[in-house]
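Exercise 7. Given the components listed, write out the predicted structure of the assembled complex. Treat all entries as one system.
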Amino acid sequence: MAQAVSKSSISKNSRTSSATQKFFCSCGGEVKVKTLFEKGKAKNIAECQKCKRVERRPSDFK
Ligand SMILES: [Zn+2]
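Answer.
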């Protein structure tokens, strides 16, 4: 019975980590967050898939 308990806790965890928020540009395109590597540093940018507008954060598209 202990097996069933651990299984459910694993699926709960994976659901939490895969819950990604969606953002949309003012043009209606979907905004995707990308990770760029610049001078050895990881940098996140948000890009609209439709008009290719780039902002630092997905929330900047509002
Ligand atoms: Zn756009």
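Discussion: The first helix runs from residue 2 to 17. Strands lie at 23-24, 30-38, 41-48, 54-55.
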